[in-house]
Amino acid sequence: MYVYDMALAGTVNRDTGDTRVIARGLREGDVAVLQMLVEEYQDRLVRYLVYVLGRRDGVDDLVQETWLRVMERGRSYDGRSRFEPWLFTVARHLAIDFLRRRREVSLDEEDDGRPAMQAPVSQGLSPFAQAARTEDAERLAGALEELQPIYREALVLRFLEDMSLQEVSEVVGSPVATVAARIYRGLAALRSQMEEKHES
Length: 200
Known about the structure:
Layout: H1 6-11, H2 19-28, H3 31-53, H4 59-73, H5 83-101, H6 127-131, H7 135-146, H8 149-160, H9 165-172, H10 176-199
Helix pairs in contact: 2-3, 3-4, 3-5, 3-8, 4-5, 5-9, 7-10, 8-10, 9-10
């Protein structure tokens, strides 16, 4: 566990995330602010990238790259809005580059009737099932895993990361109406899959 400068600890409200302090700290390259951000957002960043990529493989490297980008480009965060959308936008761009290099699915387009990308077959439980804590959560994780990545990402940002439609729109770089449609379609697909699994 890191020890923070007491003055900094007193000025940053961890519950609301004082955006002015974060923006100033990133502008000044303040290591204590970066350490606080890593502690605060590391697990959420890992979860987001696992859901977006549909696998655990490669996520640690992308998380590390994301924090490097935050350090390099922190001056571009102005503190006028919440930090989370800015952070997840950085992570998303890296995930898109990662998927393009591997010539995998797109996070910007729906499939044309093709089956959703499946997580690679592995020897154990999928990352989604591993994250599940209850039987209902396990069924939900399994259903999420089968969604097209474009819908999965919208649902994760909206409901797991608790972002507004506007914030999700900023992260994915699409209009709010498009985001709302993705969430609606994703929920419908999720409901259908959950019902099918329940019946079988």
